[in-house]
């Protein structure tokens, strides 16, 4: 069955809508409820509060298409399958149906909607480990679907256990579905999960029965949930009988533009193909990050900003290998926007911003790249002259600090020239140079560290702070991200200049005034249009008519948010702003605490 990405999305959402699921909007690539990761890596990220028991405005059965970024395999990009950005189709049960319905619907969708024969379907289940029982219930359900025992494989935790997405959170056993491609087995031990290409994973159903705590303990969840995931790119690749994800309809226009711009064909065709794929992947991911509805990620030196910078600069370096002239990032971004904006309108809305940031970063990097490459060549020549094969850490850090070469790029260049890099020495040099802003501390991630009383109070305080900033500085102050732990909050907002001490004091006083009033915090469910009509702050879009949660703090603040919040403001403590500083161009950052 031949199928496009658009057709697959529609088939999936329509199928689960027919099973009583509400179609909800996908969330930002910057997670709002999990500060343990930089990006949204799975469809369940935005749903963590609801998987933990908070009621969702749309009900107990949900389905959507979620854009995701995963960078764990970034160095493998360029092969036939690895990507940094991908789309994930998902359906969820929040304390509603469980294994029987999830498995039977998966079987139905694969066989009746996508046309796979039952004989080609193989599955894996959790065999039990570390005192956790085997998932025999899933085995019996698959048998009831008609799958023979030799199509059902019991595998260990490393294969059939999912989550949590970060360090803590919902998790549980899963059942993975594979399609037999018909290729011969690579060995007698070949089974689903083998990387030889005979069995291709197409879907994963996670049965969230547990919550992993900070100390590693697995405790039963208050409600049993189902979380599923089907990758759009991988699925259409397999269904269309294609060799790689780069041959699918979502990548071909991007690849075509790269080949149109290319003026040099390297002697090694495989290397040229790898460069094309890296450019295509990295530019698609960069366009989505810059065009995200959150709007907080820009090229920089820490956290998500650093990942974006690395992606753009890697694309620039590979473009030079192919003789692609400067200015290409805008050309490719335009293709991405054209191909995806009907699904993700935020790309069109943020089109100018995407092009501006790409132009600035490409220009900035272009100026240092030639000089840095000359410096690298000098270093390489000296090393070869002295019979050495490793670039020391201080030299690697100089290439980063002076010439803008990320460590990973230096490692890549070194490998191409037969050298290794002293990574530990680089890290030591980095720490010594930036004692006040170590690499780990600079990582900025949005959301809640947990759902403790202290964290919930801090989260409520961000609503008061957001409104107070608008009152004191103006309505242009919009949240660009937040990072919340039980000890403190960080809040990024749009504002063109440094706040004065008087402004900081006014904001602080205004927040504390609302806390002292012991205002009630009320949650209502309504459509986004209704929320905006009532004056609620809403910094994202949703599907027409989709229900959202609106939290009102007395008559002071009204904001669309996923929660959770305190019931009254009176017990929150005394709000104190510790620091106000720059986060990025046009964005300020406040660090504050609640004192008791």
Extended strand count: 19
Structural class: alpha+beta
Oligomer: single chain
Quote the average pLDDT: 89
Rg from alpha-carbon coordinates: 25 Å
Amount of beta strand: 15-25%
So how many helices?
A: 18
Distance between the termini: 63 Å
Unreliable stretches covering 5 or more consecutive residues = 436-449
Helix content: 25-40%
- What spatial form do the alpha-carbon principal axes imply? globular
Biggest sheet, open or closed, and with what strands and sense?
9 strands, mixed
SSE map:
Blueprint (H helix, E strand, L loop, with lengths): L4 H13 L4 E2 L24 H4 L9 E9 L15 E10 L4 H15 L7 E6 L9 H9 L7 E4 L1 H4 E2 L6 E12 L18 E14 L5 E14 H8 L12 H10 L7 H22 L12 H19 L6 H13 L5 H4 L1 H35 L4 E2 L1 H11 L3 H10 L3 E2 L1 H11 L13 E2 L4 H21 L5 E6 L4 E6 L6 H16 L4 E7 H6 L13 E7 L3 E4 L13 E11 L2 E9 L1
Parallel strand pairs: 1-2, 4-5, 10-11, 12-13
Antiparallel strand pairs: 2-3, 3-9, 4-7, 6-7, 7-8, 8-9, 13-14, 14-19, 15-16, 16-17, 18-19
Helix pairs in contact: 3-4, 7-8, 7-10, 8-9, 8-10, 9-12, 10-12, 12-13, 13-15, 16-17
Please explain how this structure is put together.
By secondary structure, this protein is of the alpha+beta class. It is 39% helix and 22% strand. The protein contains 18 helices and 19 strands. The protein has helices at 5-17, 48-51, 99-113, 136-144, 157-160, 232-239, 252-261, 269-290, 303-321, 328-340, 346-349, 351-385, 393-403, 407-416, 423-433, 453-473, 501-516, 528-533, and strands at residues 22-23, 61-69, 85-94, 121-126, 152-155, 161-162, 169-180, 199-212, 218-231, 390-391, 420-421, 447-448, 479-484, 489-494, 521-527, 547-553, 557-560, 574-584, 587-595. The strands form 4 sheets. Strands 1, 2, 3, 4, 5, 6, 7, 8 and 9 form a 9-stranded mixed beta sheet that branches. Strands 12-13-14-19-18 form a 5-stranded mixed beta sheet, with helices on one face. Helix 8 runs antiparallel to helix 9 (303-321). It is globular and about 70 Å long. The N and C termini lie far apart (63 Å). The model is unreliable at 436-449 (pLDDT under 50).
